[in-house]
Design a protein that fits this description.
globular, four-stranded antiparallel β-sheet, 53% strand, mainly beta, 11 strands, seven-stranded mixed β-sheet
Length: 115
């Protein structure tokens, strides 16, 4: 069973930055996709960004040019660098690992952007 643990969330001022981290348990091998999703109150969970084991990235249009997803396969860790944060980015952010037709989710980390 894959376990994902997120960290790096918190309270930040508008225009500020945060870096989220997600560490996967054990060694993750073979083709897989890791990503970040978010869910704001009253809304469905939505895709933020994904990155394949080969480094191919995909972003939601709303975060392009502001967020950067990256991964360190040796550490089984994926990151989300979030710059120029806006109040509407406030949400619970969840790490995801898709492999062998299965979805694995972390517990989530709260990001609150407020003045």
């Amino acid at each position: 069973q894959v376990q994902l643990v997120e960290s790096g969330g918190g309270l930040v001022q508008p225009g500020g930055s945060l870096r989220l981290s997600c560490a996967a348990s054990g060694s993750i091998f073979g083709f897989n996709v890791m990503g970040w999703y978010r869910q704001a109150p009253g809304k469905q969970r939505e895709l933020v960004a994904t990155i394949t084991s080969g480094g191919i990235t995909n972003y939601a249009d709303s975060v392009k040019s502001r967020f950067t997803i990256s991964r360190d396969n040796a550490k089984n860790t994926v990151y989300l660098q979030m710059n120029s944060l806006k109040a509407e980015n406030t949400a619970a952010y969840y790490c995801n690992l898709a492999r062998l037709g299965r979805q694995n989710w972390g517990q989530g980390t709260q990001v609150t952007v407020s003045s």
